[in-house]
Design goal:
Helix 3 crosses helix 4. Helix content is about 70%, strand content about 0%. It is mainly α and about 120 residues long. It contains four helices and no strands.
């Protein structure tokens, strides 16, 4: 019985042995394709990497902008702590202080035109 089973499987084994290079080539090609898909679209693939790189660059620009803004504020704070003219300027502009004998002129707020509730004016 075992001999008949071996003889029935032998032609299949001979065909597989003859096609071993093709099978190996196809297997390597499939594995290379799967590896390519994983590298491009995987959890840390190239697509995700490019998104993270763009986000990193935008955050670096924002950090540089915030640092410049902080430097400007630090200079203003230093000026307000030490410079008499800067203190006077801020007091005049924000608090509307005036020296003795001076008058502070404050222009009236611009009048706002009410927008009609319906659009009949546009017809």
């Amino acid at each position: 019985m075992a001999a008949s089973w071996i003889e029935s499987v032998r032609p299949l084994a001979v065909q597989l042995y003859a096609l071993r290079r093709r099978i190996a080539t196809i297997t390597v090609a499939v594995l290379a394709g799967l590896l390519f898909v994983h590298v491009m679209f995987g959890a840390n693939g190239m697509v995700v990497y490019k998104k993270k790189r763009a986000e990193y660059e935008s955050l670096q620009k924002r950090i540089a902008q915030e640092q410049k803004e902080n430097e400007i504020y630090a200079q203003q704070i230093h000026g307000l702590k030490t410079d008499e003219k800067a203190i006077e300027k801020e007091a005049r502009e924000q608090l509307r202080y005036a020296r003795a004998g001076e008058y502070v002129y404050v222009p009236p707020a611009p009048a706002t035109v009410p927008v009609p509730a319906n659009h009949s004016a546009k017809k």
